[in-house]
């Protein structure tokens, strides 16, 4: 039986992994009826739609969301309702794009608010927008927008 932790009578989300129930596989209909449009939508993977391959995969995918939800609940119980609302407002303001669409944004303020500024992850050195192979013209991107 899963142990439920509570803080002053309020239950916190469980740390045990919970998988989503199996869903039905649906074929995306294209212009030609039930035949999928592979050129526009790409190849579909039925295995990813059905279930996770390992029981911990769902837990690892949603770890940050569950941890954030637990932190917000504890913050609400300790400091009141205004503290999580203020943090969510700061995060939403920091996540807004402030540069032109073709220029990469480092999102330093958002990373600092989320606590990612003290860790090094795969995205820090493998997903650098300056290493992109596509160079876009600023004027043409702004005209399209």
TrEMBL record:
Pfam family, any one: UMP1
InterPro entries with a match to the protein in the record: Ump1
PANTHER family: PROTEASOME MATURATION PROTEIN (PTHR12828:SF3), PROTEASOME MATURATION PROTEIN UMP1 (PTHR12828)
Lineage: Eukaryota, Metazoa, Cnidaria, Anthozoa, Octocorallia
GO cellular component, one term: proteasome complex
Keyword hit for Nucleus: no
Keywords annotated in UniProt: Chaperone, Proteasome
GO BP annotations, alphabetical order: proteasome assembly
Superkingdom per UniProt: Eukaryota
Name of the protein in question: Proteasome maturation -like
Family designation: Belongs to the POMP/UMP1 family.
């Amino acid at each position: 039986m899963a142990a439920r932790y509570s803080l002053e009578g309020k239950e916190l989300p469980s740390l045990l992994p919970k998988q989503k129930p199996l869903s039905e596989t649906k074929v995306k209909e294209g212009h030609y009826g039930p035949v999928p449009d592979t050129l526009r939508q790409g190849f579909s993977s039925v295995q990813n739609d059905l279930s996770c391959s390992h029981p911990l995969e769902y837990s690892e995918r949603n770890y940050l969301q569950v941890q954030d939800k637990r932190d917000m609940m504890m913050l609400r119980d300790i400091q009141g309702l205004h503290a999580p609302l203020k943090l969510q407002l700061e995060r939403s303001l920091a996540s807004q794009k402030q540069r032109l669409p073709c220029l990469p944004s480092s999102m330093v303020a958002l990373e600092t608010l989320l606590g990612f500024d003290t860790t090094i992850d795969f995205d820090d050195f493998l997903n650098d927008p300056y290493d992109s192979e596509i160079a876009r013209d600023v004027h043409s991107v702004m005209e399209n927008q």
